[in-house]
Specification:
CATH topology: Protein Transport Mog1p, Chain A
Radius of gyration: 18 Å
Oligomer: single chain
Strand content: 25-35%
Distance between the termini: 45 Å
Shape: globular
Largest sheet: 10 strands, antiparallel
Amino acid sequence: MPRTLVVASTALAAALACAAASGCSSGGPGGSPTTASGSGRSATASGPPSSAASGSAPATSSPAPGTAAVSAAAPVDWAAVPRTPPATLEALLPTTAAGFARKSSASEAAGSGAEARTEASAEYAGPKEATLRLVVQDNPLRAEDILSERSGSFRGHPIVGAEESSDEADFAIVVAGRFVVIARGANVTLAALREAVGKLDLDKLAAWRQSAPP
């Protein structure tokens, strides 16, 4: 069926599949015991050339909004940085989002070393059988992988995928080069997914880039 907006990539599709399955790390499937509440399942224009004769300075291009901070960030040894506790990520998920009410939530941890990841997700119900799922992953290697697909920004954070059809939609951003936030739903619009992602405290996530929050 026709797509009205597509900027998703193979890397993002993998991230979305991982979020749906709630069982893979940056390098592939992985699993560990899941902690959950409720009944949900456990779970990325330059100016014209200047003229030498005129003596004007060369034109330069500006980075896309929301990408400069990530590009300029110093490299991090992710193996040495503890991941955000799953319960801490789960606490960020709102009880309501874009008119949808949360039915359940879940969280998990998997992997080790640089490939360690934690994740929290929540399922939401809306009108007319519409459904929505929000996922927050502390998965630095996957975040770095899909950052190459950034296109624009959302509240200062790179958008790495936005896709909408007549019956489903996906939206994803990367926060601080470390966290992947994904929203996907059925019988829902891309605008609603953006609104749902906006309910998360993205500034708090960004502040955790090189720390291990409680």
